[in-house]
Predict the 3D structure of the following.
Amino acid sequence: MADLTIYEVSRCSTCQRLTALLAEHGIEYEGVEYHETGLDEATIRDLLAKSGLHARDILRVREPLVAQLGLLEGEGAGDDELIAAMAEHPKLMQRPIAVRGDRALLARPVERVLELLE
C-alpha cells in the first residue's frame, strides 16, 4: 500500500474510528502523535498546501485556548498568526489529518481518507 501518514491523537474518538476503518480495509499507515511531537510552522504550512485548506479550516474552534489567545473568527487573526499558534500549541489543530504523497485532507468524516487511496 502507498505511503499514508496520519497526524492523530490516539485517545481521540475520531482518530480511533479512523484507525478502525483503516484496519478494516487492511491499510497500514504511519501515525504521528502531533500533540506529543509538535509540528513546526513549515510542516503545518505543507499540510495546508497539500490539502488546499486555510489555517482557520483546521483550527479547533471549540478548544478553550482559541478564545484565550484571541483567535476566534472576527478577532483579526490571519493564517500566519494561526499557524504560529498551532506550532506553539498543537492541540489547536483539528484531527486527524491524512497525507499521501502530495495530497492531504482533514479526515472528517473519517471515510474521507479513502479519497486518498483511490
Observations:
- Strands lie at 5-8, 30-33, 97-100, 103-106.
- The radius of gyration is 14 Å.
- The chain has a mean pLDDT of 93.
